[in-house]
Design goal:
Radius of gyration: 22 Å
CATH superfamily of the largest domain: Glycogen Phosphorylase B
Distance between the termini: 29 Å
CATH architecture of the largest domain: 3-Layer(aba) Sandwich
Low-confidence stretches: 370-387
CATH topology of the largest domain: Rossmann fold
Strand order of the largest sheet: 3-2-1-4-5-6-7
Largest sheet: 7 strands, parallel
Length: about 400
């Protein structure tokens, strides 16, 4: 199949963007032809190109009623680009662009499949109408799927497919000391890793508080924070200093294209989310690296860890409880961590995810016209096919 991935800002740091990149890689390995339509020059571009993706850059903005004329023009241009690339299905994950791509689908006749990585929050009537235009919506968990169904998405075009993890990329380090040396981390320290956005709702403040409580009990420990703060400034380093954590005991590394290396190098990975999670990709990635994982009683995060891991699940916002869980995990038997990786291989591998997505995509595939390119590719005027879908 010829698949066009529409990612306005294909950058590392977002869970849905990572899911789509891994899906594109997996489908490319199976012989599908991948194209990428993007606006910003995000940090994932090299990864898409390495997967063999044809790349096209153009202005992409969400649909807006106040900018109806330009929104219609952008939707037509998206459809025209998809047609010229021979796309049989458009794949997307940025839900703010859902209405724009619904229009592009109507104009071009090319079906759209959306990865619904966030719970539905839109109630305005035009969204529900757009849902009926998108040919397939894929949610990573049952409660996320239900939120879209309750918002008006037809149940017949919704599917639940757990996010997949590239277990060749996210895997245990064969030589943890050498990996730490390469990353510039102390070889003999107890490394506590957090990977993800640094925000209050992700539990960043609670984790810093928890580390302040146990830093003296683990005198050779280092907190390694990998991820971008959504607010410019140094609020988290300042918070760490306020709690008495020396600067040399915590590293804020920002967003990185190689989060798997820092997870595999860690003694414990902590995902202390305090907000609704549609899935919990970071948790599964850390599990695949074969290290102890601490998380919270949020959404399906405890279910991801599976049986026998209850002592590694704490209440959201519980700094003392989080500190105790980290301290226990540092000295845990390695068999428990190996069990986590085995669980990922059984339930959450990219191959399993690609199998499921491929079945959905094959049901959507659009027959190619003579010559292999849609007639829209050669049109210079905005086509009208029954008006707006909403």
């Amino acid at each position: 199949m010829k698949l066009l991935f529409c990612e306005p800002n294909p950058s590392f740091g977002g869970g849905s963007e990572q899911v789509c990149l891994d899906l594109a890689r997996g489908l490319a390995r199976r012989g599908h032809r991948i194209s990428l339509l993007h606006d910003q020059a995000g940090t994932m571009l090299a990864a898409y190109e390495a997967a063999g993706a044809t790349r096209r850059q153009m202005e992409l903005r969400p649909f807006g009623w106040r900018t109806l004329g330009s929104s219609l023009l952008r939707a037509w241009r998206v459809g025209r680009a998809a047609s010229s690339l021979g796309a049989e299905v458009i794949v997307a994950s940025e839900v703010h662009y859902l209405r724009l791509l619904a229009l592009a689908s109507v104009m071009s006749g090319i079906p759209v499949m959306f990865h619904l990585g966030l719970a539905a929050t839109h109630c305005e009537w035009s969204w529900a109408s757009a849902y009926r235009t998108i040919r397939a919506g894929v949610a990573p968990s049952a409660h996320t799927l239900e939120s879209w169904r309750d918002s008006g998405w037809p149940a017949t075009t919704l599917s639940e497919i757990p996010n997949g993890v590239d277990t060749a990329r996210f895997c245990p380090a064969p030589d943890k000391a050498a990996l730490r040396a390469r990353l510039g981390l102390p070889v003999n320290a107890t490394l506590i890793n957090h990977t993800g956005r640094l925000t209050p709702e992700k539990g960043t403040g609670t984790l810093i508080e928890a580390f302040a409580r146990i830093k003296d009990q683990l005198p050779n420990s280092l907190l390694v924070m990998v991820g971008k703060d959504g607010v410019p400034g140094d609020r988290w380093p300042r918070r760490a200093a306020e709690l008495g954590i020396p600067a040399e005991r915590v590293k804020f590394l920002g967003a990185r294209p190689d989060p798997e290396a820092f997870m595999a190098a860690a003694d414990v990975v902590v995902a202390p989310s305090e907000c609704e999670e549609s899935f919990g990709l970071t948790v599964v990635e850390a599990m695949a690296c074969g290290v102890p994982v601490i998380t919270t009683e949020v959404g399906m995060l405890p279910q991801l860890l599976g049986p026998g891991q209850a002592d590694r699940v704490v209440r959201p916002g519980d700094g003392p409880g989080l500190a105790q869980a980290i301290h226990r995990a540092v000295s845990a038997a390695p068999e428990r961590s190996r069990a986590l990786r085995a669980r990922v291989l059984e339930h959450f591998s990219t191959d399993k995810s690609c199998d499921a997505y491929e079945r959905v995509l094959l049901q959507l595939r659009r027959p190619q016209p003579a010559g292999g390119v849609s007639s829209l590719a050669g049109q210079d005027k905005l086509p009208v096919k029954g008006g707006l879908p909403f």
